[in-house]
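@channel sequence for tomorrow's demo:
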Amino acid sequence: MSAYAILHCDVFAPRTGTGNPLAVVLDARGLADHEMQRIAHWLNLAETTFVLPATHADADYRVRIFTTQKEIAFAGHPSIGTAHALVDAGIVRPRDGVLHQECQAGILPIRVQADATDNAYSVRVPSSRLVRFAGPGEALFKRALPEFFWTDLKPALVEGGRRWWLAQLRDEASVRGFQPDSYAIAALARETGSLGLCIFARTAEGLVVRAFPLGVGIAEDPASGAANAAIAAFLHETGQLGALGRRYRVSQGREIGRDAVLTLELDAEGEVWVGGDCRSVLRGELQWP
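structure tokens (generated this afternoon):
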């Protein structure tokens, strides 16, 4: 029986218990690919990460990200949570306030601002682009989101390593009161090779967001960095940022008993950064044969 140090943290959490849980295996040397997948499946969280030595001189560490079903190239909350776990454990130190994470999506910078509020960690997200808008006659999409929910900004499929359907609704109440048809969203995800549906609306502070990644078997995500980054890039690409400006806050997760806060920022080059606070919750030892 081998033992591996593990830390569970709460990501995008202004208070403990309000964000998206993540398990981080702090040194995964000795674990084979299939063992990482089995561990992630057993832990039964949205994602589990496994830290390994970097293979590039420019990176501080390498991370592999697993859902309960498969390995993925990138996700926002695992990237931010892993950075927090490694800083918290004293394994890495930021250089000039920045860590460089190696993952399947490349080497990504993560800013570390321990004294910041709602933005202690932020990662530059791989670029995403608009693939196409939904057509009013698409029966498959209409079952997932009937047309009476649509606004002038039609629902759109975006691609950023992982595909999402994004839809802007009229107002906050429409988003918070939305009753998802899980079978229809799962079918939409399956037929279009996407994660599922993400809906959003504008508020006085920024956006309210709900994400339904039924393409990977998750009914509703309490806080999704990659989905929110895709929304920011989509609004920027279509010229729809408007009063949101280049930095705004997102509320996500209240409908499933959380209250996550994410900060979205577009830098001078148009790159999207997603950030938030992290809380260490459990420290221990994973014993795995």
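heads up for whoever presents: The CA atoms of residues 160 and 281 lie 31 Å apart.
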